[in-house]
Amino acid sequence: xxxxxxxxxxxxxxxxxxxxxxxxxxxxxxxxxxxxxxxxxxxxxxxxxxxxxxxxxxxxxxxxxxxxxxxxxxxxxxxxxxxxxxxxxxxxxxxxxxxxxxxxxxxxxxxxxxxxxxxxxxxxxxxxxxxxxxxxxxxxxxxxxxxxxxxxxxxxxxxxxxxxxxxxxxxxxxxxxxxxxxxxxxxxxxxxxxxxxxxxxxxxxxxxxxxxxxxxxxxxxxxxxxxxxxxxxxxxxxxxxxxxxxxxxxxxxxxxxxxxxxxxxxxxxxxxxxxxxxxxxxxxxxxxxxxxxxxxxxxxxxxxxxxxxxxxxxxxxxxxxxxxxxxxxxxxxxxxxxxxxxxxxxxxxxxxxxxxxxxxxxxxxxxxxxxxxxxxxxxxxxxxxxxxxxxxxxxxxxxxxxxxxxxxxxxxxxxxxxxxxxxxxxxxxxxxxxxxxxxxxxxxxxxxxxxxxxxxxxxxxxxxxxxxxxxxxxxxx
Length: 477
Hints:
Blueprint: H1 4-16, H2 23-50, H3 64-67, H4 76-92, H5 101-111, H6 120-130, H7 138-155, H8 168-178, E1 186-188, H9 195-208, H10 212-221, E2 222-226, H11 229-241, E3 249-251, E4 268-273, H12 298-309, E5 310-321, H13 330-341, E6 342-349, E7 363-370, E8 376-381, H14 403-409, E9 418-422, H15 423-428, H16 449-476
Parallel strand pairs: 1-2, 1-4, 2-3, 4-5, 6-8
Antiparallel strand pairs: 5-7, 6-7, 8-9
């Protein structure tokens, strides 16, 4: 077995020598497009073996095998010139007139991507390292999948890219509960690097995929949308690594679609998503939505959008920040619409540090079905493991921590972590969903009136002494 961890470290060390690359985000983007081209070429080779008529969409001179695969191949200025003057311009101008989705994806990836490396000799060293991986070998691909997770996790600390990575334990838990099955349409309208999509693929494959036809159906029914070029590219690559030949990922801002144009044919069975929060939406995107729900807070607009995309009887699990659970005006109208059109049956309250280090916002997992109004909501407070003060990049949340919640899920009872609230209480409270655990006694230090007076007296005495000292300082100064 190859030491892929070492390959990634070696690659990063080689890249650091190139003057064009600065910072983790650029290194990951550079690595991303190189890996994408290598994976596409390995896949093309596999398809050529299976079907004599198969012809790659990538022009012959741009195929990895013809400029990158040979360790003794072009290098230095010739290599950097080829990438700048031929590879990128031609891939950005790839013919998409046939409507071929794979061609469109490749073109979109390269339209939004940059080549940062300037030194052709160093680029050659990177290519030679990548050539030690064979993506057609299931062992290589499986191990590389884990390494890919590491690359995606590295994004968390690379500037503002953290918003595209949801901890694996969270995506696995949410997907397992919602349990998408073969034939169901699954959507993530803000898919980032594809964590929920690959989780859904694995969930369905484990239970339902028995042959090539099943795999083809799975490919057609998993759909993502992503607005930013780097996560879009990583999502596409992520899906290809999970055996999805033509990933159904759109390079688009899903909020930029006219709300009323989303009709029955667009509706889906399952939504799994962690929409961006705390971000402002693209200028004017809110005008796509009904007057009543217009806001520039992205998480709130995504909630309206996802309700629209779900078909009656459809089910969803999404991540929302505390800020979307409260607030008046448009926020309240959105929540009322949500509770009247969906059965929000469960809210899992997470500790603040789940999305560290890029956000210490308190977040919640919301589980709901569309088509029936909410009558009551169960709340479950997820606690940090014993002895852990907070999650961090090196100590992320683990899937094993959800065992207690999974046991409780199908046999619900109130306990110190679980409570339920009626819709009447919620409506009477301005449809606020931010309901604290009633079983946790507020920490109150019970002092008698006499003790409070003594404390107050001491406090005043200390203030007087401080003022006296300041007065003296000024007078002596």
